Amino acid sequence: MNDFITPRRSGTLSRWRRSPLCRSLAHASSMAVVLLATACGGDSESAPPPESTNRDATVPANRQTLPTETASATDISPSKVSGSGALDIIVAPAGDGSLPSDLFVGCKFGPVFQVSDLETILPLEEGDPGGVAEAIAPFLGSEEGTFWPQDGWQLLRQTVDDVLLVHAGTDGVAFMTVERAGDTWRWSGSQQGEGCPLHYVTPDGLNAVDWRVDPDSPPEAGDTTLALLVTERACVSGQELGDRLRGPQLVVTDDTVRVAFAAEPPPGDSFDCQGNPEASATVELPEPLGEREIIEGLAIGVDLEDFLD
After folding, report:
1. Cβ-proximal residues to 147 (8 Å cutoff; 6+ apart), any chain
2. Nearest residue to 196 (alpha-carbon basis) of 262, 112, 116
3. Contacts within 8 Å (CB) and 24+ apart, 263-270
4. Mean pLDDT of 49-57
5. The pTM is what?
6. Structure confidence by residue, pLDDT tens digits, 137-155
């Protein structure tokens, strides 16, 4: 059975087994979510978002459609790489299954926010700090803005200088960012995509790395190694990973093997997004794979939409 995380309005995320009942609750409205007995503190303004070098994990200053996959050069034989250095990306839940309220999470290709922000989501008309609705009106009234949701926006995160708005609808999840300009607010960007499965955020100073099982070497129950293909997610002008690969971090349970990688950014400040080449990596397991499922270690297991009205 797979583990997943059920949303709780206290701002924590609790781990449950995926039973038919749990699968139903995971997609139920927020009114059906059980409240924890105690709230986990943590103001959404208590910490700034991490200065990640992974540009795909930040809200850009211009409009953008969230990508659904990472381009890679699969028409050539991948180079072989070996990860090195300790990696600590996958956050172990507390004894009660909760995650730290100040932990930053986010969409795989979208904005980041803290776990505590998930407990304070409000409709914009109820939580507007003053002037945010007016700040997004010119964009929504523009020719391009007519293709975006005109109402139903919710406040996901607010700091002194920035506001992150979210909208979930039949067309997916959309975000808008509003930044402070003196004594007023101004629209600064928007994104939209098919959905927002929550992921752990790659640590500051490292780029995110995606991986997949090598289709030419499918794993078997008796294997003590995994053959994977890894791809750096950030724009690096198509440079090879080489010895910049970090990890893997493994979390092995009775049912799953969670795998996560990261990468040291290459030298330089300016890169294009031509697509990055895949590289082959071998992962050593502490024991035979057995019937365990191999899953993305950064995927928390719940969607942002589960927290939205």
Report:
1. none
2. 112
3. 263/206, 263/207, 263/208, 263/209, 263/232, 263/234, 264/205, 264/206, 264/207, 265/53, 265/205, 265/206, 265/207, 265/234, 265/236, 266/236, 266/239
4. 37
5. 0.73
6. 999 999 999 999 999 999 9
